[in-house]
């Protein structure tokens, strides 16, 4: 049913929805959920008439309530747990299919489900790297919110931020090493746009004379 359900149009709509939701969630602090009013009230309480200057630091500008309650508890943790349950179910179904005895009237499931298992492992690796990259920063945010007196070393914060940025570079590498079709397309794009090499197959087909 996959080919009938996952059409290019539906895939494009799903991708567009993901980007729209990402923009709305990421831009929420710009819509007003930030520490601007809190900093102004603090200045008023201090009876300071000097120029209002914002210290440009992440924890100073961005609300930790937004980062923990809205970002982590709504948009990161539930989808992560849901994807974990889905992958566990996928691996369980594939294992059951691979353990079935092959009858004389049925085709060997090893060939099809072996390929499916390899793809599932690759996607599970992407999910694991995502959790490994993003959970440390969210855990530090939870510590900052729920334990204001606790001091976390700055080096841990820098490492956590570095992991979140590095996660964006991990996925293409994982896909390229684990999925043959992605690796072929990746090498083709790399050779064409970075090494200025043309595809020989494409050139031979385009150079053929017409009838």
UniProtKB/TrEMBL annotation:
Localisation per UniProt entry:
Cell membrane
Q: Name one GO cellular component term.
A: dendrite
Q: Please give the coiled-coil regions recorded for this protein.
A: none
Task: List the Pfam families hit by this protein, alphabetically.
Answer: 7tm_1
Q: Tell me which domain of life the UniProt entry assigns to the organism this sequence originates from.
A: Eukaryota
Kindly give the InterPro entries that the UniProt entry links to this protein: Adeno_A1_rcpt (IPR001068), Adenosn_rcpt (IPR001634), GPCR_Rhodpsn (IPR000276), GPCR_Rhodpsn_7TM (IPR017452)
The chain positions of domain G-protein coupled receptors family 1 profile read 1-175
The main location is membrane
Gene Ontology molecular function terms on file: G protein-coupled adenosine receptor activity
**Record's keyword annotation contains S-adenosyl-L-methionine:** no
Q: Which Gene3D superfamilies match?
A: Rhodopsin 7-helix transmembrane proteins
Q: Where are the transmembrane segments?
A: 12-33, 72-94, 123-146, 158-177
How is it placed in the membrane, per its record?
A: Multi-pass membrane protein
Q: What does the record give as the function of this protein?
A: Receptor for adenosine. The activity of this receptor is mediated by G proteins which inhibit adenylyl cyclase.
Q: What protein family is recorded?
A: Belongs to the G-protein coupled receptor 1 family.
Designated name of the protein: Adenosine receptor A1
> Which species is this UniProt entry from?
Piaya cayana
The gene behind this protein is: Adora1_1
């Amino acid at each position: 049913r996959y080919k009938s359900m996952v059409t290019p149009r539906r895939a494009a709509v799903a991708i567009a929805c993901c980007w729209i939701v990402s923009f709305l969630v990421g831009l929420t602090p710009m819509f007003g959920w930030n520490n601007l009013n809190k900093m102004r009230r603090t200045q008023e309480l201090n009876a300071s008439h000097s120029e209002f200057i914002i210290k440009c630091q992440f924890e100073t500008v961005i609300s930790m309530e937004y980062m923990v309650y809205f970002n982590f508890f709504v948009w990161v943790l539930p989808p992560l747990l849901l994807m974990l349950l889905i992958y566990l179910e996928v691996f369980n179904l594939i294992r059951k299919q691979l353990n079935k005895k092959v009858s004389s009237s049925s085709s060997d499931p090893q060939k099809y489900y072996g390929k499916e298992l390899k793809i599932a492992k690759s996607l599970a690796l992407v999910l694991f790297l995502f959790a490994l990259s993003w959970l440390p920063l969210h855990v530090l945010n939870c510590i900052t919110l729920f334990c204001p007196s606790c001091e976390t070393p700055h080096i841990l914060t820098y490492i956590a931020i570095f992991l979140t940025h590095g996660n964006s570079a991990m996925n293409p590498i994982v896909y390229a090493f684990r999925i043959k079709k992605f690796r072929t397309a990746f090498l083709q794009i790399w050779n064409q746009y970075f090494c200025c090499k043309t595809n020989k197959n494409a050139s031979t087909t385009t150079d053929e004379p017409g009838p």
